[in-house]
Structure formats: C-alpha cells, structure tokens
Design goal:
Elements (H helix, E strand, L loop, with lengths): L2 H9 L12 E7 L4 H12 L4 E7 L4 E6 L3 H9 L5 E3 L2 E3 L20 E3 L11 H8 L12
Antiparallel strand pairs: 1-3, 1-4, 2-3, 5-6
Amino acid sequence: MGALDHILDWFEVTPRRKKRKAMQTVEIKVKMDCDGCERRVRNAVCSMKGAKTVEVNRKQSRVTVTGYVDPNKVLKRVKNTGKRAEFWPYVPYNLVAYPYVAQAYDKKAPAGYVKNAVQALPSPNAPDEKFTTLFSDENPNACSIM
C-alpha cells in the first residue's frame, strides 16, 4: 500500500459519483416568428450540456429536446433568449376521453391536439349516461335482446 492509500483508508474517503440524469424528452411551446428567432432558440438549447437532439417546429411553435437534461433548465434557457415559453400543454386528441370538456378544447392548439386538462367523468345519474350504459356489455343488468 502506498501512502495515499493509507491516508484515504484512515479518513475513509470514498470518491462520490454524481448521479446521471435520466434520458428524457422535454417539449416546450415557444412563439417564433422568423428564422432569427428559430436560430436563437436552437443555438441556446443546443449548447446545453447533455442535450442530444434538438427539433424546432416553427409552424407548431414547438421545441423538442432529447437528452440528459433538466426540464426546468431547458425552459429557463429558452426564456433567456427573450421569448415567452412554457412547457408543451397539449396531448394528442386520441388520448383524451372527452376532448371537448371545459378547458381542454383550445382553438390555438395544433391540429390533432387538445389541451392537457383534468378530465371530469360524467355524472353516473345523468340521463344521457344512463341510456349509454343501458346496452353496454359491461353492465350486468343490460338488455340482452340483440
């Protein structure tokens, strides 16, 4: 054993390793009007440590960053370019049970997307819900004339 090993054993110092961030995809909504805006946002995000791929879709006002990054740091970096930015508030239309519920339908949403809002289920005593479940296969008391 060398002197350094002896000292390290005496102090019981173990090298600490940083936890690596998980690979994730961060989507941000940013209003971009021109090529200069797009280039400024792309350069700000591409220079981040851990960013693997950056996709900018100016038509949808969407920036997608994939890599070992912190979502809050990506949002902060985009905001530092002088643009108003927020996390991507939309989900695909086919993943929502009631896409036209209050606060979910947004005219500004890209085609095929609705706002990610809390989905309220209809009241089980509502008349339209009673007629819908009357002939349901999941209802054990349903009518079996078919």
